[in-house]
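Key idea: predict the complex, not the pieces.
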Amino acid sequence: MNKTLQVRELEAEFHTPRGVVRALHGVSFEVQDNEIVGIVGESGSGKSTVVRSITKLLMPPGKVSAGNIDFSGRSLLDLPEREMRRIRGKEIGFIAQNPFSALNPVTRIEKQFAHIAKAHGVKVDASERSRALQLLESTGVRDPERVMRGYAHELSGGMAQRVVIAMALYLNPQLVIADEPTTALDLTVQRQVLDTLRRLTVGSGRSMLIVTHDLGVVASYCNRVLVMYRGNIVEQGLVDDVFVRPQHPYTISLLNSVVRPEDEMQYVPESAGGPDSAEPETPDPSEAQLSEARRS
Amino acid sequence: MIRYIISRLLLAALLLCGLITLSFGLVSLLPGDPAVALLGEYATPADVARIHAELGLDLPFWDRYLGYMSRTLSGDLGHSLFTGSSVSSEILTRLPNTLVYLVPGLVLALIIGMASGTFAAYRYRRFADKAFTFWISILMAMPEFVLALVLLFVFYQQLRIAPAPIGMLSSTQITPPHVTGSIPVDAIIAGQWGTFSSILGRAVLPIVTMGLFFAAPFGKTVRSGLLQVLQSPQIEFARACGLRPAQVFRYALSDIRGSLMTYLVLLFAASLSGAAIVESVFSWPGVGGWSLDGVLKGDVPVIQGFVLIMGSTSLLGYVLLDALITLLDPRTRSKAVAGRRQKRLAETPAAIS
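Result:
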């Protein structure tokens, strides 16, 4: 199997007036062809910093300080901005968290597609437009012709995120990076959008790196998972392995924090007492174990 | 859309009536009696009463108010208490003189502010940005007359490349034949291009003064606006799609154009009052110096005329701005154009357009 993306010993830091904050401590992982890799972790664990380092969109005061990012034979960190721009959108697609803040509010959707095409030297003509229309349709947009002629604010959240997905996939990137693509959406729409994403990426030979803090998303959509904690990848591996036999105490406590409706049903005693008296049976990871992990 | 524009115009008319009322109220708000200002402190009560009768100050309040309102609306702004000249014709001849340097000055401010603010935002926290912030602070701390005097000192006294600050025309130049009364307009009508270009040459320093003076706050607004929008998810997504830097800049600009346009209109309104000081420094025969003179003497009709001109120009600016911003943004445009009908449609979930 070929590696689409290989990240080695990536380090990033933020230069703040109160000193340098190290956000990534030597992160290494890879994404292979045709697979979906999930990055999970709590807020501030460095998930977003990783994906922004890959696209080189880490904003000052953030800075990649060391490491190596290899994307289909090129070392991204050594590329000048001019060449990096050609890779963004064309070879690496990016799906933003909130579609309404990502789409241009004053430009028609079809114009925004045309801008992307123009930026990568693709001639904007009728066939290009119909390709965008087809793509919109395949992401599940109802009445794509009308959406193309309209503006972002006229769409529902789910539809707008489908438009963002269509824009990210427009020029056929090999790798799609999605930064919490469903957190801004209603629960009912989340699954539809994720199904669409899976169908359009691995279904057509692409790979995807998906950042999320929803373990359910990882369990049902990803092949492999990276667990991040305080700028480190504390555990990585196949989803089945990591979720069934977690090794690292942080992963264990992360998995235990998931509310399982079926578990809770068992704990409510049928006769005496209310839900308050129910004791959770799931074992807490020992504090000693956890603090040991923090020190390492 | 037409209904929207009409509603804006009606609002403007209403505000204009309010403005006239304010300007009328100035007479009673101003300390001192115009008759005393005119005759001096040792005037006899009989003389004061005569002037009151002449100015109509002895009439009942409503007669004065309605009379002032109808005269103002028909374009008669009264006569100066001291020179006796008609305020409206005085404004008509002087306003073009002011606009000759004011409009290019604002355009210059727009260009300098836009360019330097953009440059600083893209070079955030680097040397160029720090240099920009330093000069902006100095310019913003400097009143316009100091700036004008510094420019005069450098370009007139030291380098001798600017003409003396003695007005629009030098004494050797022939005044163009009287058509409209405004010298620059008359010079164009008469085809005296030499005179006209000499006026422009003399306007260079006032233009640069205005340009630098207003470039500072405008550039600062451009910089902070761009800094904010360049960090936004919208720009991040645009860059993640691989858009060219020029395209990204256009996206960023379309996001802040509303606030920039608003600020520009605010500057225009401020520049009209700033004109008074600059015109005094350059002995420029515009509305600013003339009204400053009127204010110092207590020449009520002149003050009222200036207030009306400044107020209605700003009013016009705001109404145009409001309509422009609403119609440029598709989010507000659809509401403004379709009115209530749109609201009902939007409530049904399938409505897209």
